[in-house]
Amino acid sequence: MSALVVTDLHAGYGDARVLHGVSLSVGEGEVCAILGPNGAGKTTLLRALSGMVRTRGTVRLGDADLAGRSPDTIARQGVAHVPEGRGTFMPLTVEENLRLGAYVRPASRRARAEVDADLERIHGYFPVLKTRLRQAAGSLSGGEQQMLAIGRALMLRPRLLLLDEPSLGLAPLVTRELFRIVRTINEQERTTVVVVEQNAHLALGIAQQAHVLETGRIVLSGTAEQIRADEQVAQSYLGYRV
Amino acid sequence: MSDTAEVTRVDAPTRAGALRRVAAERWRWIVLAALFAAACYAPFQLVPFRVFQFTMVLVYAVALLGLNLLVGHAGQISLGHGAFFAVGAYGAAIMLDRFELPYPVTLPIAAAVAFVIGLALGLPAMRLRGLYLALVTLAMAIFLVPLLKRFEEVTGGSMGLTLPKPAPPAWTGLAEDQWLYFLALAVAVAAFLSAYSLMRSRVGRALHAIRDNEAAAETMGVRLSFYKTLAFAWSAMFAGAAGCVYTWVIGFVSPDSFAVTLSITLLAGLVVGGLGSLSGPLLGGLFVMFVPSISQDVNEAAPGVIFGLLIIAVMYVAPTGLAGLTGRAAHSIRKTLRKE
Amino acid sequence: MTGFLQQLVQGLGAGAIYASLALALVLIYQFTGIVNFAQGELAMFSTYLAWQFTAAGMPFWLALALTLAVSFAGGMLIERLVIRPVEGAPELTVVIVTVGLFIFVNAAAGWIWTFLIKDFPNPFPGGALEAGGLRVSYSTLGVLVVVGLVMGLLYLLFQHTRIGLGMRAVATNPDSARLVGIRVGWTLALGWGLAATVGAVSGVLVAPLLFLEPNMMGGVLIYAFAAATLGGFDSPVGAVVGGLIVGVAETLAGAYVGFIGSDLKVGVPLVIILGVLLLRPQGLFGRAAVERA
User: Fold this and answer.
1) DSSP symbol at C288
2) Hey, which CATH number is domain A2-238, 3.20.20.70, 2.50.20.10, 3.40.50.300, 3.40.190.290?
3) Is the pTM here over 0.90, yes or no?
4) Which domains does chain C have, with CATH numbers?
5) Over the stretch A176-213, which tens digit does the pLDDT of each residue have?
6) Is residue A99 within 8 angstroms of chain C, CB to CB?
7) Contact status of C80 with chain A (Cβ, < 8 Å)
8) Cβ neighbours of residue C280 under 8 Å, at least 6 residues apart?
9) How far does the CA of residue C161 sit from the closest CA of chain B (Å)?
10) Do chains B and C touch (3 or more CB pairs under 8 A)?
11) Distance from A121 to chain C by nearest Cα, in Å?
12) Span A100-124, pLDDT tens digits
């Protein structure tokens, strides 16, 4: 059963067209990695999925068609996007950032109790955030801000989690830790994940399937093992020959 | 503005495109010459009151030319250009009243004084974004009126100063209103020519670069604060010159003629006339003069309502104002003519 | 000494009014990066509405409540109709549109209510509270209480409600706010509505001290600009502190600097704006200016 089905998706900025008919599907609870060189349209693909760029084509999440909807409507459908640059609300506190993630959840007494419980759960994944709750989010380190961004996304209880270059600007150790947590989250919460990543090695490590994007088109698709075994990909993105 | 629009519309940078641009340029000069001839002929055909009105159009056009340098070309906002207009007007009045200087001398001095004040005020304000300039200039325009009232012994206080108007030399055979008209026309032509050459110079290109993207202009080596301050001082100078001619023409100055309304009306006229174009100030001058005089019969507040709505409408649909619209119209006429 | 304290209190009273208009300016600036030059005129228009309601026989406080409600709706409507089309346009365009709004609202008030001055009822009793030789008029006291109340309510709204948190999120990072599901467009309209309401309070408070006429808020706007510049355009707390400082500075300068007197007091905000721009451009409480691309 596929959770996300994208068909013939086109997207761009003004006159510049970036995506030229991308189709893919991601199974319920799976992690899908999007690989490719700079400028291939990876970030634009995520932005198209969350409604931040104009699109043509269909994006089905369960029964809902998301294509052409506004970002806030798509978020209300349960899509959490951790954007490039992490989207931190810098002057707000860490706790406020996390609570904003649950902004669209109902405000009933029971729902609020659930939100508080989720906050606790996220502290479990990212203990460091708990010690910084009252601190301005802008004062966190890059790695902590990335954790905060993922935590904020989880506060939505998303059906689909979009991660844009979680490793960007982080030290290798921090990155590895982050991917370990993303895998845990995926396993424990059964959240469907689409991750865009320069570091193909790490991304393939947590993904069940992967697609290679070049100049706005998918040029190669397969299971993570198949992609890892592909000689060309190995040369281009993994940095070694098979 | 219209130049750039034309350039982008030319399909390829071919010889034909270049020729077409030369032809457009030639057309522009022919139109200007015809306009000038009509302007010289008009005062002999119109009743004195109309001549006076057109004289005022020229006065406003000179002030708007200055404002256009700042707003249209350098992209900075002034909500207080009436203050520089007042500096020129009062400067001329005081020179005529207290020192009894011959009136031709008052023009360069009034312009120079406005330039220096513009420079002094522009230095602090220009170090920051255009927003703050708008605040400072608005505060300045509001402060000016009580200031003028305070220094009564020089400015005549609330009563203002009444002065004799320049008399036409006997050899011209002109009536007073016609003579004043030609004085204003001469100043206006000089102002247009100097603004034109200024915009064609290195300085003009630097200002355009600042308007289009401050950060990029700076990395290309444009000294931002220097050029912005200079643009501010120049625009003050034009406003001062216009104010001086205003005093010649009206023969009377009082603080309440230069309330903040004047500054805002000037900006409104420029926006409606067309930012960044050479004909915008002239069209704006027509607007500043005739919209109030025509619509005031309906209601005292009608000019404001019209100006307010027009400004907003212009910013939505035609940011280049009337000048842009006529430019576009002329362009499409030329195009249809060529096709036939 | 008592005389000085007397002036100080009077300055705080004036400053509270500037603070509320400055707060309105800051509210909009935070959300949209726009300085709304029409803010004073909107407040003036609201004040005319209040006058109209009381003239129709409504008790003052009911008229005020109705005015604030109408102002709120009007502010939202203006954002949707007038500002939305130029959202994201160059700063110059947006400023000119608010100046157009300034001219239009000013003239519209003149058209509806004429340019003749009107007496605006003072909601507070005459007389004064006396304590230790200090006389504080009930009018000044009332202004301070009302403005304090408005600040308190805003603080509660922003710090302790879900909508307030959403508004702060939009103010700091609109793109990211959209991604967590906040309807940014409505939030911006909400910001304009709030600003119009807070501005209306300043108009209603200042009208009994001046006379009600279409150009009433011109001077007040300049003081509010000085207050917002001094406090920092991105800081609501700064707007309040800035407003109080400007009010006190103006009153003291008018009372103790013989040359300034009452007529040249309007030069004080000009000096303050220039001084702040030269010495500390981001204001007392503002974050260092970051260029909005």
Assistant:
1) P
2) 3.40.50.300
3) no
4) 2-279 (1.10.3470)
5) 888 998 999 899 888 999 999 888 888 888 999 999 99
6) yes
7) no
8) none
9) 32
10) yes
11) 19
12) 999 998 878 888 899 999 999 999 9
